[in-house]
Amino acid sequence: MFRNQYDNDASTWSPQGRIFQVEYASEAVKQGSAVVGLRSKDNVVLVAAKRSPNELASYQKKIIRIDDHMGIAVAGLTSDARVLSNYLRTESIRSKMVYGRALPVGRAVNAIGDKAQTNTQDYGRRPYGVGLLVIGQDETGPHLYEFSPSGIVSEYYAYSIGARSQSARTYLERHFESFENLSLNELIAQGLRALRDTLQQGKQLDTLNTSIGFVGKDSKMTILDGEATQAYLDLLDEEDSGAMDTE
Asked: How far is residue 99's CA from residue 87's CA, in Å, rounded to a whole number?
C-alpha cells in the first residue's frame, strides 16, 4: 500500500470503489498478535497470544471482560480497543438499568459496528485501528462475533484475527464441525492448537504469553492468565505426546 490522492480521509472514495483509510486500519489489525475464538453448543472460548513491547515490559492484555455474560479479544491498536470496551460496558450497564436484563450479544456487537461505521463516513474522523472477537452467552445460547474497522460484524462458529491468523483459520475450517459437542476443556485445547499455528518458528505457548477466556451456559465470563493457564497447556502437551506414541 502507498499514499495517494484518495487516502487523505475516510470519506473519499477512489475510482475503484475503495476507501483506503479503512484498508489501512484493517492492516493495523493484521499487525496485532493473533486471537482465536470458537464455540460449542454450551460454551464459547477465546484464546490469545500476548506480546511484550520489549524485555523490560509486561505482556499486553488481550482479553477484556465486558460483563458477566460477555467478553472481547483484541488485535490491533490497544488504545482504540479500550475506547470500544468502555463503550460496551456503558451499554451493558444501561441495558440493566433501563430494561432490567443483560444486553443481548448481537445488539452489543451491532452497536459498536454502527459506532465504527460513523468514522468511515464523517469527514475528519479515522476508522478504529482494531479488530475484535466478541463472545457472549444470552437467552439464545453462546455467540461468537467478529468486528472489523469497516464497521462490518459477522457471527462465526470459529474464527481468528491478527498476525498469521490464516494458519489458525485453516485449522479451524478443517475441524469446526467437531466443536459442537465438545466439553469446555476440549474446546479450549482446540483453540490452543489453532493459536499455536500462528506462532513464529521456534516460539511456544507458555504461561506468560497465553491468555484464555470463556463463558457458557453454566459459567460466567472468566479470564485466565499466568499460572492459571498451565493446566490447559499441560492438556495440550499430553494430547501431543499421546499422538506421538500412537504413531
From this structure: 18
Residue range 74-131, pLDDT digits in tens: 999 999 999 999 999 999 999 999 999 999 999 999 999 999 999 888 888 889 999 9
Amino acid found at 227: E
Q: Are 235 and 185 within 8 A, CB to CB?
A: yes
Length of the chain: 247
Q: How far is CA 51 from CA 19, 107, 121, 145, in A?
A: 30, 31, 33, 23
C-alpha cell at 62: 488481550
Exposure string of 3-30, with b = 16+ CB inside 10 Å and e = fewer, is eeeebeebeeeeeeeebbbbebbbebbb
Amino acid 241 reads: S
pLDDT digits (tens, 9 = 90+) for 33-58: 999 999 999 999 999 999 887 787 88
For residues 63 and 222, give the distance between their C-alpha atoms in angstroms, rounded to a whole number: 10
Residue 230: per-residue pLDDT: 95
Classify the C-alpha dihedral 11-106-229-58 as positive or negative.
positive
Distance between CA atoms of 133 and 222, rounded to whole angstroms?
15
Q: What is the pTM of this model?
A: 0.91
What's the N-to-C CA distance of the chain in angstroms?
46
Decide: 194 and 160 in contact? Cβ < 8 Å: yes
